[in-house]
Each structure stands twice: as C-alpha cells, then as structure tokens.
Amino acid sequence: MITLHIEHPVTDYAVWKRAFDRFAGARADAGVLRHTVRRPVDDPAYVVVDLGFAETGQAERFLRFLTTTVWARPADSPALAGRPRTRVLTVEEDMRQTGAVRS
Question: Which fold has domain 2-90?
Fold first, then answer.
C-alpha cells in the first residue's frame, strides 16, 4: 500500500475536521482506500493524516489536487495553519502484534 502522509498545525481542530469530512467524496474518487487522522498527545493543534492508496500515481495526483485546489483556497482549508508537510511513502515492513504474550 502507498501512503500519502500529511502533517500540519491547525487553529481549530473541529473546524478543520468538518472541512476534512467535506472532501470524503473527493478522497473516494481519488482512490483512497483508508485514512487515519492522528494528533500528538502533547499538541492538540497539530494533525497527522495518512491516506492509503493502491498506486503511487494516485497518491501523487491527489497531492497535486490538495496543493492546487484545497490548500490554495482558504475557504476550502479553514483552520489550516502553516504549510502542510507531505511525503508519499511505501511500506517496507508492517509487523502487527498478535496479542500473544510469552513468559
């Protein structure tokens, strides 16, 4: 899976989240298979978003859409503070705990 990783400060998380939710259809149309929104425990005015795609090209095209359309217009990106940091990532390893504990 390919991940578009996005980080940025926000002025108001609730306002930002409503705007994020308004673009659910655009994410689906772009091929987003899953998304995760995280916030640092010590900084509630910061968000980390991971968008999962099947192909690198999909992630790159969606990043262009965000840059040229969403983040370029304050009305589409309310509460965005500062410039988002982004990276397109590929999974090299994904280890999940099974819950089994050995003594």
Answer: Alpha-Beta Plaits (3.30.70)
